[in-house]
Design a protein that fits this description.
Metallo-beta-lactamase, Chain A, seven-stranded mixed beta sheet, 16 strands
């Protein structure tokens, strides 16, 4: 009887260990999205790859920016929508420290190297594209397509030097293997061709600027969401400066006016959320 009890105890321990390993495995298979404030995001893929978008980590609304920046010791890809300093942010510092590959359009990539000193060895034809083009990255784990954005794009070495043109601004459609498809609008106004996005890829998560003044405000952003028809929408690029007056509350009202079906998810700076691991791209 004592031997039987011992076997039962051992079996229970093995089952518990197996459950723990399975739970950890399932957690690791999920995609995580972190918002740093403004237009800066981190995507942690199901396989553990780290992707950054417009990484202005030390922006005014993210109080933990300094510590977060210091802790980013492994980054695989840095995506940039355009060259303005509030989007390029800490990209060069992160790239030099981690060896991250830069992903952007051709003109912006060239400007990042020649003007701001991004390591040229961490860019290539395989990770540089342009409007309408789609790139396969990380051995096919991620794909990105560059889509239009109505804005401007230039880089500056510092405030005392003139801005250097850095090509067309873009939005980014990032599709993860066995994970969600994410559309980061970049800085843009509403335009009718946004409706074409859903004809080529169903968007699971739309990261949309709502701040007004330099981009579309809540009403026009809500109209953009209606055109794209994502499953979930996350507002960004608001509240960083006083002139960015658009708010999530106003955005929600505008979505309701238009009877938009997308789920609104308002994040706080530094928050990480788990995206649906069952979504197939």
């Amino acid at each position: 009887m004592a031997l039987s009890n011992s076997w039962h105890s051992l079996f229970a321990q093995v089952v518990t260990l197996a459950d723990t390993i399975l739970f950890d495995f399932l957690i690791s298979m999920e995609t995580q999205l972190t918002w740093y404030g403004h237009a800066a995001f981190k995507i942690k893929s199901a396989t553990g790859k780290t992707l950054l978008i417009d990484p202005w980590i030390e922006n005014p609304v993210f109080t933990g920016g300094k510590d977060e920046l210091a802790g980013l010791d492994r980054v695989d890809l840095i995506f940039l929508t355009h060259g303005h300093s509030d989007h390029v942010g800490n990209a060069v510092e992160i790239g030099k420290r981690t060896g991250a590959t830069l992903v952007s359009n051709f003109d912006l990539s060239a400007a990042m190297i020649s003007v701001l000193g991004y390591p040229e060895a961490q860019t290539s034809n395989e990770t540089t594209g342009h409007l309408g083009g789609e790139l396969s990255l990380l051995g096919g784990e991620a794909r990105v397509q560059f889509v239009p954005a109505w804005h401007g794009s230039s880089v500056q070495r510092d405030e005392g030097t003139p801005p250097i043109y850095s090509g067309n601004p873009t939005g980014l459609i990032i599709a993860l293997r066995n994970g969600p498809t994410i559309y980061h609008t970049g800085d843009t106004d509403l335009f009718s061709d946004m409706a074409l996005v859903k004809q080529f890829r169903k968007i699971d998560v739309m990261l949309v600027c709502i701040g007004d003044h330099y981009t579309m405000g809540p009403a026009r952003a809500a109209e953009a969401v209606k055109l794209v028809a994502p499953k979930t929408v996350i507002p960004m690029h608001y509240g960083t400066f006083p002139v960015l007056t658009g708010t999530p509350e106003a955005f929600e009202r505008e979505l309701k006016k238009r009877k938009v079906k997308a789920r609104l998810r308002v994040m706080y700076a530094g928050e990480a959320v788990t995206l649906d691991s069952n979504v197939k791209s």
